[in-house]
Amino acid sequence: MIRREFIQRTGAAAAALTIGAPAIIAQPQPDVPNVLFIVFDDLNDWISCLGGHPQGDSPNIDALADSGVLFSNAHVNCTICVPSRASMFSGMRPSSLGIYDNAGIWRDRVSENIMMPWTFQNAGYHVYRTGKFHHPKEFAVWEDELMMDSQVRPPNFPANKTSIRPTYFPRLDWGVVDMPVRVTRDHKFTNWAAEKLHAGASEPFFLAVGYKGTHDPWYVSREFAEKYPLDSIELPDVPEDELDDVPPYPQNYMMQKYWFREVKLHQQWRKAVQAYLATIAAVDYQVGRLMNELEDSGHADDTIVVFTSDHALHLGEKYNWGKHCAWREDSHVPLIWRVPWITPSGAVNNHATEVLDIYPTLNDLCDMPIHEDCEGQSIRPQLENPSLPFNRPAIITPRYEVHAIKDDQYRLIYYNNQQMELYDNINDPREHTNLIDDPAYQDVINDLLTWLPDVNIEP
């Protein structure tokens, strides 16, 4: 069982998460397991068990990681919503789908019947969804669902009291709002999921819960914002020469430097970081509620729990704001698996992996076939033995013919005009120093280049 202390825990779990000698959760394997799939919008690695920001505080997410396996080096396959989710739920790479931005229509590129919810329904599962799962339109497959309603502008709109870029203003907004947490969308999503877990879900069930709160604009209830006094906020480290060794292509065609300049011009950087940290605390509270409801429902021991995000984002790193780039800040996301009859508790796998593998792993665990075009692979061996490495790097494709190859130590970024970057993520985890012109790394570069996708479908 998951411990009752999810919401009450306040200490960070990161120090306790080690590979060595984890305790095994001895639960009998169910004949047909249930699935609880928790997917976030724009949740980066600022949760405390990943340590992406020194002030990140997420005791309930940490507790979930402490009850299963945390993949500390997990990466999405595209760094923007539609292509990332299309890839995650089809098991196919963005370069094979030809979907690289939010204008891409996945239904034009991939059949619905190979997408994750349909395969579970076809296997006899009852499929339910609350919040955001796909994007922009949800599947018609759900047996029951709570649609994602539009975010209501707070009474004090604009919360940051500035006029940042009017054409993008509704999203470049953040701040404290005097609305109780119980009226937020994510709270309603948790309530609906709890009802399904207790009385409304027929077994076996596939329950998708899509939390939206970490997507801008960040409107935060006062009770969470007060955890982060403005004068205590630590900003991301951005050296003055950060862009000196970054090639022209990402600076001219991928970055949102203008938005970051506006944020600084209006003296909103510290307030934005405060709001994002507080938003993580708010969604962490929802995770605690959801996991307590799972335990109380009696389904905790026969339910696979998967927790991840569609991508991450920049909040000023590399003088960039937002997403859709190939650096660590956009691709590095949480990935937690809890399979009570398989996973050890409190284990960490530190090897580079990709969210593409979620779909085939679920199919493997639920004894279901996977479609022949799936490019992911089951990571069941790593769930059983979290010290095992993977047989390939993670491949991130933020644009057509633009790829990042991420192994356990290095990130190679290849742009479609053959400009490149190379970072040593062990000695330079924040990717400040581009090593691409250092001859000492030519063998590393050559090896990573062999992993570039052979198929690159035009958008």
Task: Provide a concise account of the structure shown.
The protein is α/β, with parallel strands linked by helices and about 450 residues long. It has helices at about 60-65, 80-90, 95, 115-120, 185-200, 220-225, 250-255, 255-265, 270-295, 330, 360-365, 380-385, 440-450; strands spanning about 25, 35-40, 70, 75, 125-130, 145, 175, 205-210, 220, 305-310, 315, 320, 335-340, 345, 345-350, 355, 395-400, 400-405, 410-415, 420-425.
CATH topology: Alkaline Phosphatase, subunit A
Tell me the number of helical segments per DSSP (H or I, 4 or more residues long).
Answer: 13
Structural class: alpha/beta
Largest sheet: 8 strands, mixed
What spatial form do the alpha-carbon principal axes imply? globular
Strand composition percent: 15-25%
- Please write the CATH class name: Alpha Beta
Fraction of helical residues: 25-40%
Tell me the radius of gyration.
Answer: 21 Å
Can you tell me the residue ranges where pLDDT is under 50 for at least 5 consecutive residues?
1-24
Number of strands: 20
Number of domains: 1
What does this structure look like?
- With 459 residues, the protein is an alpha/beta fold.
- Mean pLDDT is 90; it is low at 1-24.
- Strand 19 and strand 20 form a beta hairpin.
- It is globular and about 60 Å long.
- The protein has helices at residues 59-66, 81-90, 94-97, 116-122, 185-200, 222-225, 248-253, 257-265, 269-297, 328-331, 358-365, 380-384, 442-449, and strands at residues 23-24, 34-40, 69-71, 74-75, 126-131, 144-146, 174-177, 205-211, 218-221, 303-309, 314-315, 321-322, 335-338, 344-345, 347-349, 353-354, 394-399, 402-406, 410-414, 420-424.
- It has a single domain, classed as Alkaline Phosphatase, subunit A.
- The termini are far apart.
- Helix 1 (59-66) packs across helix 9 (269-297) and helix 5 runs parallel beside helix 9 (269-297).
- The longest helix has 29 residues, at 269-297.
- The strands form six sheets. An eight-stranded mixed beta sheet has the order 6-5-8-2-10-13-3-15. A four-stranded antiparallel beta sheet has the order 17-18-19-20, covered by helices on one side.
- It is built from 13 helices and 20 strands.
